Amino acid sequence: MMNRWHVVKRLLPLLAVMALLLSACGREDLSTLNPQGPVAEEQFGLMKLSISIMVLVVVVVFAIAIYVLIRFRRRPGDKTIPVQVEGNHKLEIIWTVIPLVLLVILGVPTIQSVFGLAKDYSKDENAVQIKVTAHQYWWEFDYPQYGVKTAQEMIIPTNAVISIEAKTADVIHSFWIPSLAGKIDTNPGGNVNRMYFEAPKSGVYLGKCAELCGPSHAYMDFKVKAVDEASFERWVAGMKAPAEMPSDPEIAELFASQCLTCHAVGDKGGTIYPNLTGMGDRLAVAGFLINTDDPQYKNEGTVYDNLVRWIADPQEVKPGNNMPKVDLTQQEIEAIAKYLSEQKLDY
Ligand code: CUA
């Protein structure tokens, strides 16, 4: 008895640390327990149902076990053998039928949801089609119906079904927006996975890569911004408008030679690296450096501060990413950051 208590006492600090770690999951809502759309609500419903059944089973089994332990304990001097119930038909039927009924209660809605949520909207004209490509360590969002491509921030209208087709450009990642829908993996080898969700309430929802994909996996965040239909149309128009280049010809030249060889802004530049159109009203730089002037967030700054930090040393910010250190002076970096931070779509 003494020994066992010692083990428990030693484990207590470990358990406390684990509880703390599990509860300290950042300032943004990464919880599936606070659903913000019909798909997430349905999934949350299944969680509630299964947890209720499990709690019921645990409570009943423990209550019976404790009752039996006390009621039928061996009393001092009692040498009799209790009634033997092995092979008792009545008891065996009871403990076979009850779990069977519970499994049916759990199984029917689960299977219904699994097939319901697998519905394919990829050919639906009324759904907003978004092709998601995961890269180490950023997200590409392609809107084929609108001829628009962006990165890191998925803008969606609140009044439509969003149909996702997800693939990867390199290793396995997992696309996950906890408050809107479950996750889907992006598998190497040309495989495409589909899902859909809706976000009827306008707002910003945090997305995460949920599959260990390299040293910067933990920084592979993205945002989903749900806006009303008119804002969405304005955003699309802004994305398609001709790009405005830096007014200083020297900076424009540097920007073209150092950045646009890979990145795109509006109709100019490369297409395979994160699109930078409308950087000025993005919520984050590099997907996870939150743009804020709130001094509470010590590691982050305004969009300008974050851009300067990122361009100066991308490997320091997000180790292992594919952006090379650019050949620019601090002054030139600041000028390019200033230009990018002023590019707003105002949607
Ligand atoms: Cu991509 Cu983890």
Automatic annotation (TrEMBL):
Its Enzyme Commission number(s) read 7.1.1.9
EC main group? translocase
* GO MF annotation list: copper ion binding; cytochrome-c oxidase activity; heme binding; oxidoreductase activity
Output the Gene Ontology cellular-component terms.
Answer: plasma membrane
Taxonomic superkingdom: Bacteria
Subcellular location(s): the record lists: Cell membrane; Membrane
What this chain does, per the record? Subunits I and II form the functional core of the enzyme complex. Electrons originating in cytochrome c are transferred via heme a and Cu(A) to the binuclear center formed by heme a3 and Cu(B).
What is the protein name for this chain? Answer: Cytochrome c oxidase subunit 2
The organism of origin for this protein: Paenibacillus abyssi
